[in-house]
Amino acid sequence: MDVSELLDSLNDKQRDAVAAPPSDMLVLAGAGSGKTRVLVHRLAWLMDVQGISPFGVLAVTFTNKAAREMRSRVEALMGMSLQGMWIGTFHGLAHRLLRTHYQEARLPENFQILDADDQQRLLKRIIKGMNLDEKHYPPKQAMWFINGHKDEGLRPQHIETQGDVMRTQMREIYKVYQETCDRSGLVDFAELLLRAHELWLNHPQILAHYQKRFRAVLVDEFQDTNNIQYAWLRMLTSEHNNMMIVGDDDQSIYGWRGANVDNIQHFLRDFPDAKTIRLEQNYRSTATILKAANRVIENNSSRLGKDLWTEGNEGEPISLYAGFNELDEARFIVGQIKQWRDQGGALSDTAILYRSNAQSRVLEEALLQEAIPYRIYGGLRFFERQEVKDALGYLRMINQPLDDAAFERVINTPARGIGERTVAQIRDMARSSESSMWQAALTMLQEKRLSGRASKAVQGFVELVLKLQETTGELPLEEQADTAIKQSGLMAMYQAEKGEKAQARVDNLEELVTACKQFEVPDDAEDMTPLAAFLTHASLEAGETQADQHQDAVQMMTMHSAKGLEFPMVTIAGVEEGLFPSQQSHEEPGRLEEERRLCYVGMTRAMEKLILTYAESRRIYGQDKYHTPSRFIREIPAECIQEIRLRNTVSKPVSTSRFQPATSHSAFDSTGFSLGQRVTHPKFGEGTVLNYEGSGEHARVQVNFDEVGSKWLVLNFAKLAAV
Ligand SMILES: Nc1ncnc2c1ncn2[C@@H]1O[C@H](COP(=O)(O)OP(=O)(O)OP(=O)(O)O)[C@@H](O)[C@H]1O
Ligand SMILES: [Mg+2]
Q1: Which residue of 61, 286, 323, 324 is most buried, as measured by CB atoms within 10 A?
Q2: Mutation test of ligand 1: which of 6, 218, 284 has the most ligand atoms closer than 8 Å to its C-beta?
Q3: In this structure, are residues 494 and 509 in contact, taking their beta carbons and an 8 Å threshold?
Q4: Which of 169-178, 262-271, 380-389, 559-568 has the lowest mean pLDDT?
């Protein structure tokens, strides 16, 4: 390959980094300045110019997707396949190392990886086996305890408990858990890293081999490495090799998961001769987007500090839209995406980013309604999520207890002492009597075919379902859901767990109640109960296959998963206090700055067009919460923002300045009503306009009546009048 090709597409500073003589190096630079590009070109340079073999480099990045992309970019630059090169995530590389040296790592040859779900299930069994109360020692918390200590390189014998009963017990759980894993050849994610570290610690000759072999070690997204990862990298260094780390302290967003941004300082301390290169030109975003993002991040106090500029043009202002509620917000976003598509833009060039996974539901529905394909990146669709499926399981049991899948799903979730063996017995009985498991369970109880303990536990479950059926039958759908989630113990189970992920599960359960409240039985399902109609709706949505890899689809993801990526058009939804920054971050000082870094990450994903939206009222857990716009919006200079207003009618402008004539013509314009407007109906009395859909004679409006609650009305027939 022509070397100049490698360097031509780089600016001076990038070239300095790529073509530097072998040395340790830190590339510290803001978003979109070409850090990842430098790393990729450096890899190619080392192999092509320095003559290092593909087996002599080790490159680490944050996600499997990023690793695949990096490999293919280097291959494209080199014009050859690089099979076998060590390029991957920390977990992937540790796995590879352990596979190669399984004997020294004291693992069976075919050891299995335990994913988070399996890990939690195993812990549950262990906690029960130790005769501990799961309520006091929730498996999820034990998992955080174990993984957290492993991330610090600590085994049970290293953990000080200071006489704390909880810690002592957790340490014991860790010990028993680890023995079980070792016996069965199971390795969890945190264990991969710790084992790989211990492998080198205990086998200096293996370590020496790799120290010599890997002449260059390159790490992207370094700001989000945790302690064990840094320790592992540090071990690898020797006089034979060099390390290049690339990162941005302003994009450190995994502190809550143990990432340690101080590792950048540690690197400078541990590699005193390291050369620091700062890249300052941004190639990704328009000047407006860049200026706005820079100004937001300036509000953080602990920064290494850097300036970013661009030669790019001004671009359009950032659009800001205040939704009347989350439905209006979603509809606006979908409208913008349609406009983008109509102007010839690809859907895959647009991304919708949000703070919390639970926000995706309303957005997904708005997209489905318009038949716009979408893909949820790094996550499941709302109705496919574990906790949502658990809750739906109870609703399905209320609706129809003969549903075996629902029965199996919830019989022991939350744990109520019904073991796998009992479930298997019930399953066998159902099979031999050709009945449902529910019926089989009833028969077995009646005929006393279960052992004392199992019988009592199954009886408890049956009674719970019967009670739910009896007490919720007449209730409105959302109260049915609320009761089921609470009385089944699901909510309490997830609330008892710690951490961001558990919080997301609680959010999703609350969101399910909201979904029930917003659900309208479709016309063709009027013979069904609202519950049955809702369950049908949920399974259809979950069953709808996600847009496949090659289909042009809108990209949806949390801001966390968007790290390192870029899109021509980006919408950040739910930019409001209490959601983003999150409620929890108000309570812990460091967390607010991490939220602001997340905002910086989100904004800097956008290349051409950035849209920020928030909802003035948002239904959370079936209740309307009124939020104020996020402080992050106020931190953006006013001249960078253009407020978009279209939720208004042309015919009846509301007098406040916030409601100006529509800038685009929605069907609603012709109805003569505006969202939020007070109206009166001869039968239902007064209410507030919440929502609308359709146009012309099909136009329908949703009104929340003070007396009778929310109703959809066909405009042509409804005798609505403005108050
Ligand atoms: N010298 C250059 N000339 C033209 N385009 C460039 C140059 N350097 C980088 N780019 C382009 O700018 C964009 C951002 O680059 P890259 O993703 O490497 O930035 P980054 O610093 O890694 O960003 P992030 O912090 O978000 O990970 C990419 O589209 C890249 O191809
Ligand atoms: Mg990058």
Answers
A1: 61
A2: 284
A3: yes
A4: 380-389
Residue 221 — left, alpha, or beta (φ > 0 → left; ψ -120 to 50 → alpha)?
left
CATH class of 114-184: mainly alpha
**Ligand 2 center to residue 33 CA distance, Å?**
8
Residue 39 CA, closest ligand 1 atom number: 18
How much distance in Å is there from the Cα of 244 to the middle of ligand 2? 14
Print burial letters for 177-195: b (CB count within 10 Å at least 16), e (below 16): bbeebeeeebbbbbbbbbb
* Closest of 696, 597, 614 to residue 304, by C-alpha: 597
Catalytic, 375? Answer: no
Half-sphere exposure of 435 (CA within 13 A, CB side): 13
The pTM assigned to this predicted structure is 0.75
Cis peptide before 317 (omega within 30 of 0): no
Main-chain phi, psi angles of 117, to 5 degrees? -65, -45
**CATH 1.10.486.10 is the classification of domain 384-516:** yes
Q: Which residues contact 64 (CB under 8 A, 6 or more apart)?
A: 88, 89, 92
List of residues 6+ apart from 657 with CB closer than 8 A: none
Instruction: Report yes or no: 17 and 27 within 8 Å, Cβ to Cβ.
Output: yes
546-589 confidence digits (pLDDT tens):
555 567 899 999 999 899 999 999 999 999 999 999 888 887 77
* 318-381+546-644 matches 12-102+193-281 in CATH topology: yes
Please tell me the distance between residue 302's alpha carbon and the centre of ligand 2 in angstroms. 21
Best mutation site among 222, 253, 283, 349 for ligand 1 pocket (most ligand atoms within 8 Å of CB): 283
Q: Are strands 216-219 and 57-61 parallel, antiparallel or unpaired?
A: parallel
Instruction: For the beta carbon of residue 587, count every other beta carbon within 10 angstroms.
Output: 9
CA of 564, closest atom in ligand 1 = 27
Fold of 12-102+193-281: Rossmann fold (3.40.50)
Contact 478, 517 (CB under 8 A): yes
In the annotation, is 251 catalytic?
A: yes
Cα 426 to averaged position of ligand 1 atoms, centre (Å)? 59
The mean per-residue pLDDT over the stretch 110-114 comes to 73
If you measure from the C-alpha of residue 669 to the centroid of ligand 2, how many angstroms do you get, rounded to a whole number? 44
Q: Is the per-residue pLDDT at 63 higher than 60?
A: yes
Cα 464 from Cα 459, distance rounded (Å): 9
Is-catalytic flag, 291? Answer: no
**Ligand closest in space to the Cα of 32:** 1
Sequence-separated (6 or more) residues with CB below 8 Å from residue 204: none
Asked if this assembly's ipTM is beyond 0.90, the reply is: yes
Find out whether 270 and 234 touch, Cβ atoms under 8 Å: yes
Pocket test for ligand 1, best of 7, 18, 37, 294 (most atoms within 8 A of CB): 37
Which of 605, 618, 619, 711 is the catalytic position?
Answer: 605
Contacts of 176 (CB under 8 A, 6+ apart): 126, 129, 130
Residue 35 among the catalytic residues: yes
pLDDT digits (tens, 9 = 90+) for 518-553: 888 877 667 778 998 888 777 666 544 455 556 789
**Measuring from atom 25 of ligand 1, which residue has the nearest CA?**
31
What are the structural domain ranges in the chain?
Answer: 12-102+193-281, 114-184, 318-381+546-644, 384-516, 677-722
Concatenating the DSSP letter of every residue in 156-210 gives GGG---TT-HHHHHHHHHHHHHHHHHHHHTEEEHHHHHHHHHHHHHH-HHHHHHH
Residue 84 CA to residue 59 CA, distance in Å, equals 12
Give domain 318-381+546-644's CATH number out of 1.20.1050.10, 3.40.50.300, 3.30.70.890, 3.20.20.140: 3.40.50.300
Instruction: Pick out the residues of the known binding site for ATP.
Output: 29-36
Query: In degrees rounded to 5, what are phi and psi of residue 480?
Result: -60, -50
Amino acid letter, 552 = D
